[in-house]
Amino acid sequence: MEITDVRVDALRVPLGTELGDARASVTERYWIVLELDTDAGLTGTGWISTWRVPDLLARYTREFSDLLVGADPFATTALGEAMRERTLYYPGELGFSAHPRSVVDVACWDLKAQAAGVPLYRLLGGTDREVPAYCSRLDAGEDADTVVERHTTQADRGFEAFKTKVGGRSLAADLERVDALRAALGDEAELLVDANQAWTVAEARRAVAALAERGVGWVEEPVSAYDVDAYRRVAAGARVPIATGEMFYRPERLRHLLDAGAVDVAQPDLVRGGGITGLLNAAHLAESHDVLFAPHVHYAVSAHLVSAAPNGLYAEYIPEYDASPLLAAGPTVRDGNVVLPEEPGHGCRLDPDARERNRLDG
């Protein structure tokens, strides 16, 4: 099989309201969609979801076209190395250039599963078509009443696990929000919190201790993502799991935390972390340290990996990040689970009408 054509579209989807975390807020979401046609009549799809610079990401994704046309999509390792070599010095392997490389990897794995005639999760070794999910909300700027309303609406859809934003305000205010959610959702609900690196080590220690008393399932990114020593200090004596990993562009970042015993739930990001290939490596690395795997966002593809990973815990479902309005086909969310498509590949196909309605240059 050979790649014959590369298409890249930049799409805009308004959110209808202002939403965010402890560090940023947005009113619209952008999607960079890559489609790889082949001489076998199959098309592989991948996408980048972003808050910023969609035009630059689309342009940079197109920069790999000469490496892709004529290439074998089964050769994901060789393609990954070729793209990495091109970006190693300029603009640099990490950061911006990692996103397009990952989206190519996702599209190639989609083609491999289609060629094998099986859903992606089956190709990866998974057996469970339904994957547990938690509902995550971009609710940092909202008051406690609105936070409760947003999460109870998702509870009515069957979710039993929920994540809310903390950090960026007083600890007392954060605890008030958590207490309000606990009262509304009940003692059986899994309640997770995400600080988006908002705290110092001293602040994180106080917050983690207080949140442990409230039975939260994990505290995510309590301190700077790249400070291994800070994570070690926060994790020492913590009575609640510590989760992190979404900011990592290479597996050694995760390995440093694992070796330090500073992380309990690994959360690599599909787009930052190397696509399907990168997340498989991260899941295996976490498993070797008896650490759980719950990848960051991109549920439509990440759920395939959660199904396949022995240490898979949750897929993260964010309603505001849901690509479904752009898709002609894809997974469904039912009773708090991601139900993966049975068709070959990852099952997500861009709707042609949605492409035209939402194109940035349309």
TrEMBL record:
Gene Ontology biological process terms from the UniProt entry: amino acid catabolic process; carbohydrate catabolic process
Q: Any keyword Repeat?
A: no
Q: Which cofactor does it need?
A: Mg(2+)
According to the UniProt entry, which residue ranges have a biased composition of type Basic and acidic residues? Answer: 343-362
For this UniProt entry, the molecular function terms from Gene Ontology, in alphabetical order, are: hydro-lyase activity; magnesium ion binding
Q: Tell me which domain of life the UniProt entry assigns to the organism this sequence originates from.
A: Archaea
**Matching SUPFAM superfamilies, A to Z?**
Enolase C-terminal domain-like, Enolase N-terminal domain-like
Q: Which Pfam families match?
A: MR_MLE_C (PF13378), MR_MLE_N (PF02746)
Q: For the Mandelate racemase/muconate lactonizing enzyme C-terminal domain, which residue ranges apply? A: 143-241
Q: Could you tell me the keywords of this UniProt record?
A: Magnesium, Metal-binding
Give the matching InterPro entries: Enolase-like_C_sf, Enolase-like_N, Enolase_C-like, Mandel_Rmase/mucon_lact_enz_CS, Mandelate_racemase_C, Mandelate_racemase_N_dom, RHMD-like
For region Disordered, the annotated ranges are 342-362
Matching entries from PANTHER family are given as:
ENOLASE SUPERFAMILY, MANDELATE RACEMASE, MITOCHONDRIAL ENOLASE SUPERFAMILY MEMBER 1
Q: What is this protein called?
A: Mandelate racemase/muconate lactonizing enzyme family protein
Tell me which species this is from. Halorarum halophilum
